[in-house]
Amino acid sequence: QVQLVESGGGLVQPGGSLRLSCATSGFTLRHHAIGWFRQAPGKGREEVSCIISSDDNTYYTDSVKGRFTISRDYAKNTVYLQMNSLRPEDTAVYYCATVSFLNRSWHGGCQPYEYEYWGQGTQVTVSS
Question: Under 8 Å CB-to-CB from 53, ≥6 apart: which residues?
């Protein structure tokens, strides 16, 4: 049974940092694409960053390039999102999601519709 459990969200001032964690179980992490997505109040779910290959090629949406870093620890079966220089517009619920590289719904990208399994989300609020 695939499980994804996010943690690390919270309230932070603009310019601050947070590290989100996604603890995974029930699948082989190396055989899956995995990413972070977010949903702000009144908006649709959008991609933030994904690991899209078994050798850890990454994707970042333009608004977070240079500020966020995605990584995964195979020994701990955990995926991280290091978020620096946070802005009020980064405020959202952040979700971890994954899909097998063999799943026909996955086309090699970082679009929410491509991802099959989702965590429950963790709230990130950037405010002074």
Answer: 33, 101
